[in-house]
Amino acid sequence: MTMSLDGYVAGPDQSLEDPLGKGGLALHEWVFATRNFRAAHGLEGGETGLDDDHAKFGASIGATIMGRNMFGPVRGPWGDESWTGWWGDDPPFHTPVFVLTHHAREPVTMAGGTTFHFVTDGIEAALEQATAAAGGLDVSLGGGAETAQQYLRAGLVDEMEIHVVPMLLGGGKRLFEKLDGGPSGYDCVGLASSPAAAHFTYVRS
């Protein structure tokens, strides 16, 4: 997850115009510029080097978990179920994705191997289903902040890669809130920095 210098991973007031909240898109400029990110989204060009090394997505990931807020701005019942995510017809995941929600919905199969499954019985059930679907590969915790906090409180996160960018967002969703002082039981095993981002890797002690 990418985080501002003042601890936010998304801005306030998520909407169709601002999927990551106001100002939140700027958090990810470091990754938008990389060759790996661009290739994953069907684009050419991009920068190589340190940031690109930390933008390698998908090779070891067999399934993804995300919160409903990350999936989209729809709240409450799904209505006509026309919303299929922010990412168009071919989302970049290319794996099963398990969306935490309180409202049941049939799976949505997209192009490129992505199928969204909607899990209504909690984070442990989502992790169990994602682990089975991953077939021995990693399960990625996509976000957002509240979903990450739930898994951190439950002690279910094995590794975290946090990309801190040199900007102050000033408001929105903080990653390390509601955790009784912050996550415990992790060791920093990696730190590398470019002008665009500092990349921290933590693993469970």
Summarize this structure briefly:
With 205 residues, the protein is α/β, with parallel strands linked by helices. It has helices at residues 29-32, 35-40, 50-53, 68-71, 123-134, 145-153; strands spanning 2-4, 8-10, 61-67, 96-100, 108-109, 115-119, 138-143, 159-165, 173-174, 186-193, 198-204.
Determine the number of helices (DSSP H or I, runs of at least 4 residues).
6
* Structural class based on helices, strands and sheet pairing: alpha/beta
Q: First CA to last CA: what distance?
A: 20 Å
Q: Please compute the radius of gyration using only Cα atoms.
A: 17 Å
Strand residue percentage: 25-35%
Largest sheet, strands/sense/barrel: 5 strands, mixed
Q: Judging from the principal axes of the Cα atoms, what is the shape?
A: globular
N-to-C SSE string, H for helix and E for strand: EEHHHEHEEEHEHEEEE
